[in-house]
Each structure stands twice: as C-alpha cells, then as structure tokens.
Amino acid sequence: RFLNGTLDIHIELERKLANFLRKDDAIVFSTGFTVNEGVLGAVTGREDYIIWDERNHASIIEGIRVSFSTKFKFRHNDMVSLERQLKRCDPNKVKLIVVDGVFSMEGDLADLPGIVKLARKYNANIMVDEAHGLGVLGRRYNGKGTCDHFGLLPDVDLIMGTFSKSLASIGGFIAGDYHTINYLRHNARTYIFSASITPAATAAASAALDILRAEPERIKNLWELTHYTIQQFKDRGFEVGPTSTPIIPLYIRSDEKTFAITKQLFEEGIFVNPVVPPAVAPNETLLRFSLMATHTYEQIDYAIDHIEKMFRKFGVI
Fold first, then answer.
1. Counting beta carbons within 10 angstroms of the beta carbon of residue 294, is it exposed (0 to 12), middle (13 to 18) or buried (19 or more)?
2. Closest Cα to residue 278, out of 20, 58, 13?
3. Helices 79-87 and 112-122: crossing angle, nearest 10°?
4. Per residue of the chain (317 residues), what is the pLDDT tens digit?
5. Which residues contact 301 (CB under 8 A, 6 or more apart)?
6. How many other CB atoms sit within 10 Å of the CB of residue 21?
7. Which residues neighbour 276 within 8 Å (Cβ) at sequence distance 6 or greater?
8. Which residue ranges form the domains of the chain, and what is each CATH number?
9. Which listed residue, 131, 218, 229, 265, has the most CB atoms within 10 A of its CB?
10. pTM of model > 0.90
11. Does residue 105 contact residue 54 with C-beta atoms inside 8 Å?
12. Would you say 46 and 195 are in contact if contact means Cβ atoms under 8 Å apart?
C-alpha cells in the first residue's frame, strides 16, 4: 500500500470515513484484523502502556502482543479493575485504553461512559473497535457506532472499524487526529507491507456507507427485529446472554451439543455460529444468532421454532 498501492478511490473512502466519524483523517487497511495488529503494534512506545479488556477481539490481543509497551489487562467491563490498572501506570507516560465497542461473542457494549471518566482522571487515551457497532448503533439510527450511541465520539481518540460486517465488503480502517493517523501511515507495518484492498472492494464499502447514511430506516428496522427476537427467545425459556445488540448469544454450555445443534440447524436452512473455547470460556459455549435489517419476521419465527426444537431435543431448555 505504501509504495504504489494507493488509488484515488482509497483516498476518497478514507476522507468519507473521517467525515462520517468526525475525525481529522483515516486510513484503510487490507482487513480489520490488520488494523488492530498494525495500529497497536505501532501507536505506543516502549515506556508507554496499553490497558485492555479481557474479552477484546483476538485481533486486539494480537496487536497488543507485538507491541513493546507494558500491557495491563482489566476484568470485563469492570471499572474498578480498570482504575486499579491505571493506577499502576507512570502518570507521565502515554496510556492507551483499548476496548471493543460491541463485544463480538455476547453482543454487550463497553462501558464507555465509565471508561471516558477514568481516562480523563488519569490522562489516558482511548481506542474503540467498532467492528460490530458501525452501521448498527448511533443516535437517531445514524450508524456511527457505540461511541456516538453514548454521545462520546469527541472523547474517543481512535476509532477502528471493518468493512466485512455492515459495509458488506472486505477491509478495515482507523480514524483519528491528523498527527496520529499520519504517524500510523508511516509506521504501522501491516499498512505499509500489505497490498491494498481492491478497487471493487473499496467501491463496495463506499457505496454501502452512502446507503447507511441515506437510509436510517434500515437500522431502525434492524432494531425492531432485534427487540422482537430477544423477547421471543426469553419467552421460550432460552438462556440469552447480556446482549444489547443484534448479536444474540444463546448459551448451551456444552461443546458437543453446540456442534450437533449447529449442524442440524444448517440442514434446516438456518445458519448460526457455534462459539466454543478459546473464543469463550469453557463453561460459556453458545450459539451466536445474528440479525440483518433484511430479515423478515417470517424468517425469524421459522428460525426460532427450529432452534427451540433442537434445544429441547438436546435437553438444553
């Protein structure tokens, strides 16, 4: 990308993303995974700190692993644990708090109000992974993500996102202030030494972003479907995780049953994700049921009926 992989269409998308998220600049990477790996491997130095939620996505963990900074992990969404780790940091060094905006396995939201409060208290910066928030969350169904949902876009320094979820393409991006983005453009190794996303993938993501901005009724419909579906599962006795999003975790707590149910549902035309260790703890195996704005109530009812049948067959409910 760095030497000869940048086309006008890449720059156009980067400017569009920065404008959408009200940041100075943005750069596009080959995948969402390489965004987190490259940014976190470069953005802080040897004497700095990265403080991260224990349930962050694997790409964040990989980026933290290759960083030379000191790393502190805090318990999931636990502000007492986060503050304890911030107190361990040298107050004169850079401190970066990194979290998923929406946690990908269970669909719950980061406690951004609490994180922002502590970041201000301890002079820390914040990076949020909006892979599952972009195109879903945001005030007035604007799709700007978890940060906007809480009214905290200006308080978050770096916003990461992918094109492989709501934007229906491939690739990822990081958005932030001009100086940080320019630094990453020259220092993030996964940006410099990876090929660019294709013009077709770039154009697809750009067009999807245009639709997202022009048609908020799609997001409104997605949330109506989400509230309906969660309530249906709860009314039928499912153990539903702490979701606040269209990612709906259905606990099974058995690897064998999870794989068997997934296979039989697939044969019935229902695609769900089996989530087993190491993606979750050994006793938290689940099915991830995800919704799209284009699903119909008839399709959802069909899926719920068959999932209930399988869960009862295997003695889960």
1. exposed
2. 58
3. 20
4. 888 899 999 999 999 999 999 999 999 999 999 999 999 999 999 999 999 999 999 999 999 999 999 999 999 999 999 999 999 999 999 999 999 999 999 999 999 999 999 999 999 999 999 999 999 999 999 999 999 999 999 999 999 999 999 999 999 999 999 999 999 999 999 999 999 999 999 999 999 999 999 999 999 999 999 999 999 999 999 999 999 999 999 999 999 999 999 999 999 999 999 999 988 888 999 999 999 999 999 999 999 999 999 999 999 99
5. 232
6. 21
7. 255, 258, 259, 285
8. 8-214 (3.40.640.10), 217-313 (3.90.1150.10)
9. 131
10. yes
11. no
12. no
Tokens of 237: 């006795």
Write down the residue that tokens 């962050």 correspond to. Answer: 56
